[in-house]
Amino acid sequence: NNEFREFAISILAAFPLFLVFELLIGKGDFNSIIVNKSIVLRWGLYIIFALVILAFGVLSKAPQFIYFQF
Fold it and tell me: Taking the complete model, does pTM exceed 0.70, yes or no?
């Protein structure tokens, strides 16, 4: 099943990102860690986060409106 394979690859690719994020949060407040960095690094992280959301988001399949079945 092609959808399951894509889902599994997405989960396996996202797991290290979640692990790194969890380690950063464990060291302290994530906002204070980000605020203390340079503006170039902060915006780089913001852009990376946005690209990750776009890459792993479902953009091609629009779900059916739930009230159409009634």
Answer: no
